[in-house]
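Usage

Read records sequentially. Each one opens with the input sequence:
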Amino acid sequence: MTRIVLCPSEPIRQRMAGIGIRYFELARRLPQHGLEVVLLTAGDVVEAAELEGLAGLQGLEVRGFERGRLRELVADCQAAVAQGHLANDLLVEVPELPTAIDLYDPFLVENLHYVDSLGLDPYRNDHATWVLQMSEGDFFLCSSDEQRQFYLGFLSALGRLNPKRLREDPDLAELIALVPFGVPSSLPPARPLLPERLGDEKRLLFGGLYDWYDPWPVLEALEILDRPEWVVYFIRNPNPDSTPQTLAGEVEAWCTRRGWWGERVRMIDWVSADRRYDLLREVDLLVSTHRINLETRLSLRTRFLDALAAGCPVVTSDGGAMSSLLRQHDAGWVVPPSDAAALATAFREVLTDPDATAARRQAAAGLLRQFSWDRVLEPLVHFAKAPRLDPTKAEFAFRPATQAPSDDLVFRIKRRLRRWLRPAVTP
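and closes with the structure output:
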């Protein structure tokens, strides 16, 4: 039986974001396909092993990630799936292990939004990471056709699309395949999560406030509607130390000035992975709005698939893979970017027209069938059961140096001041 190691960049624990949940699900489901799984977590091994859904799961072993000991830790594995910056260590320390690089999360593009807060170091690191991983990986996973085309361009520039590869694999299906997030065939039993509703309260869930989102049309739509009993929920980021919270701070300040903070706009803690469906069952709609940008084009919003599976209506801005799917299946509401008036109309229809909501919910069933876990895992299971090193990469792949200018003087001065002041404010 093939044993495959999973190596995500996010620790596997109760409070996980999208990547952690993705690997939690992979660890649960791959053993059902006749694979033994080793889950390498950068967090607490005991906490991961005791998670509901993993505890006592036959065919799964949880081990701690240890840089410098990876060859020993994965010596009994025949293949790997690795994601994020920890994949670099696996490729460098165990280059002979056939490795699928998971590009589901286009983190280089996401982190470009933080240049004003973090400078150019994340870009240098992320770009060098992609160069290493796309030149040395053997198989690549992505979430959508949009992502696949984008990554094929990067792979071509590094020599991975080459004459021998194309002769063996004309459509490059053995090089890069769609393995998006999946949805379960049935949901866990519902358990109460949020406080009881007050009067005629309606709940709109936005979720986390990352800097590439655009929550302002949502707030403007609430002003247009003037329905104080309609409340929007944002969720605190579970990794605030590593993810700048500029947008969250701006939203809080805007709402505080209007007396909305804690009333019409509420912030709640990140929900543990096993309770995410409970949250979606207890809100009236999920909304995520954005401006048109590259991150929007490339990301498949995990939260939307979870919401549709839970029967929660969804509203989003146009642009990107998810809005195309929603429009194609008539499974949700898609509005022009930055159009608060159109958003207000969509909110009104979702929250006051049960027939329209029921029709979209029924239409979503066809979309969800495309994302069943058994279906989306097929390319990965195929690789895992017959792992191999790409025989063309040694001849054609190469790794150009990453180049970026120095951070400007003003940014360097601000960064040094922050470092000097930090000890003074640390308790």
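Summary fields computed downstream for this record:
- The first strand starts at residue 3 and ends at 7.
- The chain has 21 helices and 13 strands.
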